[in-house]
Amino acid sequence: MTSLTGNDQHNLGVDYVILFKVPLQERAQAEAAFVQLIQALARVGLSSTVRRGGDSDSLLVFVRAASRERLARHVRRARMQDWLHGVRTAGPEADASRALKEEPETEAERLRIVYQLISQPINEGGAGVGTSTFVKTVFPLRHQAFNRAWIQKWSKKRFLEQDDIDEIRNKFGESVALYFAFLRSYSTFIVFPAALGFAAWLLLGQFSYTYALGCGLWSVVFFEYWKKKELDLAVQWGVRGVSAIQHQRPGFQWEFETEDPITGEPRKVYPYVKRLQTQLLQIPFALASILVLGGLVVFCNSLEIFINEVYDGPFKQYLAFLPTVFLVVLTPTFSSLLMRAATILTDKENYETSDAYNAALVQKQFVLNFFTSYMALLFTTFVYIPFGESLLPLLDLWRKTAQALVSVGGKTLPTQQFHINPQRISSQMFYLTVTAQIVNFVTEVIVPYVTHKAVVKAHEFQVRGPAPQEQDDAEEAEFLKRVREECHLEEYDVTADYREMVMQYGYLALFSVAWPLAACCFLVNNWVELRSDALKIAISCKRPIPWRADSIGPWLTALGFLSWLGSITSGAIVYLCSHRSRHGPEAAEKSTTTSQLTAWGGLLSVMLAEHLYLVVQLAVRYVMGKMDSPGLQRERRERYQMKRRLVQESMRGDDDEKTRLDETGVTDRVTRETLEEEARKASIPGQGSSEDMFWQRQRGAEDTIIIGRRLIEKGVAGEKKKPVPSPGVGG
């Protein structure tokens, strides 16, 4: 396979760009901060050069490693830290240049180390550069040649290979590569529920027990497989345990220092009890999320049910869009408010490291996304279908409200009898799996690209008048134009892509039994998603900083939770909807006893489905644990070779000593001088013990051989001198 890696000559050797703002009102302070910035970069071994920015009040500071030798020392220091924390099985060579020659650094490793030199605090060996009043952003330049070849290559490939993921790792780091590896594995595994769903749609129809069972088994196998796969990838990429190497978050506020029990170094600490007290606020936060988003869902869904299934008057086809309008307008508003509250709450929890902070924030975001994505379907599944009669008072409230509006003209509100429609959940799934996916693609790829082009054009018109008189050199003009455009791009957030895929997995695991073709739609969507996400990185976003990761983090916990919850909801949907789907609207007109039986039967089906899930999970986990993987084999091989090398080095001294003795011919022969010396020492009181005399009678292996031969000869001679008894004696 042709590699896409290589140096991008169009970047002129630049690793990072720092966008530095110079406000007119704070010009003196900005100038002093600029001088400090350049000096700080030089202290840590980074070269810098400056050009004018896209505005008259901005500068572009270009940064790279000052020399190959200094970069080699920084790379060796980083690898030594990895070895100390158990990430690497062997430490690097003492000679930094030789170590880099034996194991060349990838582009992602170089960019990561340079960024750490820029951003880490001064007491940790960095320049201490971060976003501030004057420093607006720090970002790596995009690799234009690689991006073009990358998109062209992927657009022609039907299926991705591991080499494609490895190239992403070498360019964008393990964090981004893990996402693409997850999406690739998920897209491969989804072929099974897609085929099963298509067969169920043709032969079994909706709400099939067979499909629910097959989809549940699939979710267990995929979850356990991915846990093993991400461990295997972490070992192959040499980042297993890298989460233990964590740097302090800039916003962390510590209260006291203590000695680290492992390293013995001073460690800044924020009391766990205080953080726990703040974390307890997550309970009212979750309740508030349920109340706000749940109330919005009940409001809009009850209005939709009234318009579609009770109201029978004019403009019904237009009024049906009214609940959707409420959802489109109010859901983002409430979600943004709750998301802001989640961020404030996470800031108050005061986490020490960025990884811990991001994990806590992702957990809160998942709770909000769970409610906004699944609340309507859960309402339909567990309220509308089994207990639709309980909605009659709410529907009657809507009827009275509508009647009050139309009674002004003296007209009677036309209505029809309310019937529970089990196909409602299927219609919702169709919208979420087809229409919503198309809208998401447009808003994720096309809209940001068009917006970026519009912003650039508007910016050009805005600065055309007061632009500086200084012109770029002809050799740099095209390059600087591209850099100024990249300054306006959005930062790539891999968390948003994870969120999208995990939410899709939840739709499949929880509700696809209502519409079995959902997996087929997701299969097509994911094929496009792989390439659209690559396109987004290539043209719509800044190049991501190549952070390392050994896991997908809290999203793995979310996958496990959704797999477990899917066993419950699938069983409940099949039990609650299959009867009504077969018998039609008359099934909704049963007595209250039927509702009670439905509740008990639904509870029993949920318990059976959950226990089956747990049993299957234990079995699959046991089988997966017995299976070996290339990554784990490689780790064991490297550890064995390292131990073998240490043993050989320790044995080499003994072999050298043996060779030296053999070459000099030095032995411990028994001579007259040695015997006299031993006798002299033995005559001195306290010098000659019985043990010493026992071992000093023979000196060395040759003397032992000589004495042994003499004893053997004497024994043979003694046997020959013994008289042979006559046969008759003693008879």
Protein described:
The chain has 25 helices and six strands. It is mainly alpha-helical and 731 residues long. Among the domains are: 11-141, no CATH class; 154-252 and 441-466 and 476-654, no CATH class; 669-713, no CATH class. The strands form two sheets. The protein has a four-stranded antiparallel β-sheet, with helices on both faces. The protein has a two-stranded antiparallel sheet with strand order 5-6. A hairpin with a 5-residue loop joins β2 (46-52) and β3. α7 (174-189) packs antiparallel against α9 (209-236). The longest helix is centred in the middle third of the chain and has 40 residues, at 424-463. The chain starts with 15 loop residues before the first strand and ends in a 10-residue tail after the last helix. It comes from Ophiocordyceps unilateralis (Zombie-ant fungus). It is a multi-pass membrane protein. It is found in: Membrane. Residues 168-638 form the Anoctamin transmembrane domain.
Arithmetic mean of pLDDT: 80
End-to-end C-alpha gap = 94 Å
Shape: globular
What about the largest sheet? Answer: 4 strands, antiparallel
Number of separate strands: 6
- As laid out across the biggest beta sheet, the strand order is 2-3-1-4
Number of helices: 25
- Structural class call reads mainly alpha
List unreliable stretches of 5+ residues.
1-7, 465-469, 587-597, 664-668
Helix content: 55-70%
Q: How big is the Rg?
A: 37 Å
Beta-strand portion reads under 5%
Please provide a brief summary of the model.
Pfam families: Anoctamin, Anoctamin_N. Strand 5 and strand 6 form a beta hairpin. 30% of the residues are buried.
